[in-house]
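Hello Y.,

Per our agreement to keep a running log of every chain we model this quarter, I'm adding this entry. I've kept the format consistent with earlier entries: sequence first, then predicted structure.
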Amino acid sequence: MKNFNEFLVEGRIKEEQLNDWISIFTWEDIDDLYEDEEFEPEPITLSEKISATSRLRKGQQMKGKSARLQTSKRMVLQRASSPQVLNKRAKAAARRMLMKKFLQGKDKGQLSAQERDRIEQRVSGLISMQPAMVTKMLQKVRELERSRMKARK
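Predicted structure for the entry above:
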């Protein structure tokens, strides 16, 4: 297996390109990486089969909980994210960045299954063989997190 520096030397992706890609990343590119599960105070369990009346009741319960969920979401957004969460977001952002570059402006949904699998394999191979890419993205995610926290004050 090649290390990342050998991969860069082969000319597939230059380190300057990688730095350019990371530098143009903005908060809007990663804001959807904040998952709703992070804001839920307790897990919600549903059985496989649910009757119509139970479904209506559950919907009413969720409507009643929506204010609580929004409040907990605001509270969570006031705190800084843990290093594990930041690392998970950086990995997802790096994966998304590579996917965007390999798609070359095409919509992922419009690709055939074979093309989609091929691109997924390329992205997975790059992410697994190079934690440095995730580390560089982690720096950018931390910077964006700090700017989000500063804007909050």
